[in-house]
Amino acid sequence: MLQLKNISKSYTTGSFTQIALNDVSLDFRKNEFVAILGPSGSGKTTCLNLIGGLDQYDNGDLIINGTSTKHFKDSDWDAYRNNSVGFIFQSYNLISHLSITDNVEMGMTLSGVSAEVKHRKAVEALEKVGLKEHIHKKPGQLSGGQMQRVAIARALANDPDIILADEPTGALDTVTSEQIMELIKEIAKDKLVVMVTHNPELAETYADRIVQFRDGKVISDSNPPDEIQENTNYQLKKTAMSYFTALKLSGKNISTKKWRTALTAFASSIGIIGIALILSLSNGFDKQISSYESGALSNFPVTINESAASIDLSSRPSEDAGKKDKKWKEFTSAGEIYPYDPSANTVMHTNVLSEEYLKYLDGIDPALLDGVSYSRKVNMNILRSDGETAVPVDTASLNFTSYPDKPAGVEGSYLADYYDLLAGSLPEKSTDLVMVVDEYNRMSQSILEALGLDYKAANISFDDIVGREFKLIYNDDYYIESDGMFKLNGNAANLSAMYNSGNAVTLKISGIIRKQQDSPMSTMSAGIAYSDSLAEEFITNAKNSSIVKAQEQQEQVNVLTGKVFSQVSGMGSGMGMGMSFSMGNSSASSDPGSSVSKEDTLAALGAVATPSSISLYPKDFEAKEGIVKYLDQWNEGRSDKEMIVYTDLAEMVTSLSSGIMDGITMVLIAFASISLVVSLIMIGIITYISVLERTKEIGVLRALGARKKDITRVFNAETCIIGSLSGLLGIGIAYLLTIPVNIILKSITDLSNVAQLNPLHAFGLVVLSVGLTMLGGFIPAKFAAKKDPVVALRSE
């Protein structure tokens, strides 16, 4: 069954080499009780360790049932110890934090035996050695003889072929020793039992065969076999410890050190607590900001302007360039100026708001919109009268802008949804105007003066404003032709006649409105607002007016002034026009004759139907995303020049605030993470201490067939448990700390429930704690796996 052929083994310490076994050959029967005797240092324990696979020979061969072990790998030796060998040690080598049943089950656990079967076999083995009434006890509750019986039960439980006993009675009294020897002799009827002892009397009394060792050699053998019966079907069953078993082992070990584990977990959780509090505050402030933004900015429009300009900072003179080129030095004392082209620092993009694009915008889902506003480059001719004299109204001074209208098919009114009606009624017809005042009911003196009101008065009654009328005069009445040129039909009599003419369109201020109190911001500034349909009606009439037709035919000369159009182009023209219309002003200038180009003049005369700006008001933030997505679809597959660039002010503000908040959060987390690094080092030290404390357990597990990776798994499981406890403790404490933090913030800022830890953040921090803790214990776990099982079993 078992053969040792010319086995040699030596140990080298520095320059000294000790020969433990020298060309030893032994054959063993399938079932016999063999006692190995010899003085200390004779090689008998080394021989036992080689037979058990705890140590490997240098030369020769160990043959098991006809199978050579010369080419065994570590995993093969692990499986051999688990399948074929049972160890009985002098010092018992029981795992103290496990019950005796768990100790007996351990070898079967590594073999993959089911829980029900291994428990039954463990109980049967304990009954066989006379410990039926003690199966729920731990090793520390037993006497020395009882603990040795547990060790014998453990050796028998997995039904091995070979039982190896190393001084099994060395720590027992005479009576107990005899009981143990009788038990071992009984076992030898069915198995090969090899016992190492210093006691020749025990060997002669109980052993079937005595082998004498001296100086690493066999000097006598009382009953060598004539021939060996081999089992040619010998196969090894690989061992494997499940992660659950590793967790169970480590959990029971940790439970014996509750206070140390608790303090370790708490110390390790400090970093988690800090990060959790930072994240909870960040999350809470983000929600507060989002809540404010959703109220303040949710109805901010997505704006599409005819022209868009942005400053290209990459072309700005750098600090290094200033050192090389003295003319770019800031605050220079040089007595000279340096011409430069400002357009070189500006990227201009012109949005072509074609009829096709306007039709595309009409296709936006009305459910996404609260209103649509158009700003047009049109100078409507408006007169006011005091009952006797009519005078032109400077629409630029009125802040004359169009108010948003609900999309077709959508019920309600934008003004009714977001503004309070202070007096009068909301516009019902295209000729109805509305006055917008600020939250203090204030109105600019220039606007009041343009309306013909007493702008120097301390206050003006709503009644003096609501119902106030104006007259819109079309171009054919407002301008007259003289010698091929046009001029304003502008003396007092003519203006009064125009005002009272049947062709004049009556405009009336129907009501006064103010933004709602719970709306932090208003999308319309104080002034007079009109319906876009009024502008469309004026543009339609203006296109067919004589002055517009004459100007369209005249390429070089302004038909109002007789002057040649300016050739200014590029940056100056573009920026000038952009600024004229950026505030929603309805005209390029209050005087069409001051326009710098033919196109500007036609626009000022009301002949351009294409809006200069379109504002799309979303219902809420989600609707805004839908609008933006729809606008982006237009740009797909188009060149940069053909794209339509829009301005999403709400997104700009939210991105800026989110970016600042994220930056602050990351900086604070970086500081808090320092404690995590300290925790990682601490866990490494604690795990290393645990390895030193459990060295004998490591040896026992290896003797039972545990692989190196199983030992690593045991200590990884321990750090996993500590990491989980640390993470859960940190999150629990952080949740509790949010209560006083919120109370303090409420008293300081009047903000409620600011600190809110996101459950996903909490889960992520627990995972982070487990990961970092396992990382900290990784090196000590690897160190444990590399321990020599023979050396580990000898440790105390």
From TrEMBL:
UniProt subcellular location: Cell inner membrane
InterPro entries: AAA+_ATPase, ABC3_permease_C, ABC_transporter-like_ATP-bd, ABC_transporter-like_CS, MacB-like_ATP-bd, P-loop_NTPase
TM ranges: 664-692, 713-739, 759-779
Highest taxon listed in the record's lineage: Bacteria
ABC transporter domain residues: 2-240
Molecular functions per Gene Ontology: ATP binding
Presence of keyword Cell membrane: yes
UniProt entry tagged with the keyword ATP-binding: yes
CDD domains according to UniProt: ABC_MJ0796_LolCDE_FtsE
Keywords, alphabetical: ATP-binding, Cell membrane, Membrane, Nucleotide-binding, Transmembrane, Transmembrane helix, Transport
Membrane-related topology note: Multi-pass membrane protein
UniProt cross-references to SUPFAM superfamilies, sorted A to Z: P-loop containing nucleoside triphosphate hydrolases
PANTHER family with a match to the protein in the record: CELL DIVISION ATP-BINDING PROTEIN FTSE, LIPOPROTEIN-RELEASING SYSTEM ATP-BINDING PROTEIN LOLD
Assigned protein family: Belongs to the ABC transporter superfamily. Macrolide exporter (TC 3.A.1.122) family.
Protein name: Vitamin B12 import ATP-binding protein BtuD
Source species: Paenibacillus auburnensis
Gene: btuD_4
